[in-house]
Amino acid sequence: MSKASNIMRLALLQLKGSKDKTANVANALGQIEAAVKQHKPRLITLPECFNCPYGTKYFREYSERIPDGYTSQQLSKAAADHQVYIVGGTIPELGENDAIYNTCTVWAPNGELIGKHRKMHLFDIDVKGGIRFKESETLSAGNEFTTIDVDGHRIGIGICYDIRFEEMARLYRNAGCEMIIYPAAFNMTTGPLHWELLQRARANDNQLYVVTTSPARDSNAEYVAYGHSMIVDPWAKVLKSASEGEEIVVADVDFSLVEQVRQQIPVFNQRRVDLYSTKQVPKV
Ligand SMILES: NC(=O)CCC(=O)C(=O)O
């Protein structure tokens, strides 16, 4: 598809969550409607696990089939009603053989499912004096890369912990992506240290936009999300950032900046491939 425009308006919805799935989805739908009315975005993003508490003991109970489940159907309808792209955060997906995945769905303005990304790198960490979390206790990892086309612009999808894996971002860059979107929920141990750093690193290394959308912080929750949903530009500059609470972050991104940065700092033509190998890029 040809690039209709280089400017795209994004709205990142940093949403409050609770244990009530219907209320969480209703809140997301209300915020989508508000964002559309107030800001007329082309693309809306939601947080990781926006319809359920983020915790391994909850994933199976809250899981749904995609695209037949309740949350998918609501997001599809919202995209069509408002004529907008929706990167639907993540939900626990009930997959083949009863496996559960942490999955992002992407909806086109006609309500069609145009992308489904299962988190590839499960969040399994144990930091002394900090956080212990093991997604693999109940989740399975996805094995496929996911890119979508929005008005001729290729966008890669990753989920939270995926951002730590530079190889994945590099692969998206090599596949022609100009932006990577990560629904995410960093925590209060690693968030202050690594959240902005990782986004700016991925943007700088690959000369593309990086977008993250977090749940709002709830200090009483079992897992306290860091917040600070963010858009970083291809210069690795923070274009816009949320605070901790429920918030809509709106920004116009200019995709011509991607090409400008790649021309001005042409590292991808300066690789010493005679000294280090570059892997074959799998088709994505
Ligand atoms: N939900 C996640 O994958 C959390 C990742 C995270 O907090 C990190 O430090 O990495």
Automatic annotation (TrEMBL):
One of its GO terms (cellular component) is mitochondrion. It catalyses: 2-oxosuccinamate + H2O = oxaloacetate + NH4(+); 2-oxoglutaramate + H2O = 2-oxoglutarate + NH4(+). Keywords: Hydrolase. The keyword Iron does not apply. Pfam families: CN_hydrolase. It comes from the Eukaryota. InterPro entries: C-N_Hydrolase, C-N_Hydrolase_sf, Nit1/2_C-N_Hydrolase. Its EC number is 3.5.1.3. One of its GO terms (biological process) is oxaloacetate metabolic process. One of its GO terms (molecular function) is omega-amidase activity. Residues 8-255 form the CN hydrolase domain. Belongs to the carbon-nitrogen hydrolase superfamily. NIT1/NIT2 family. This is omega-amidase. It comes from Drosophila busckii.
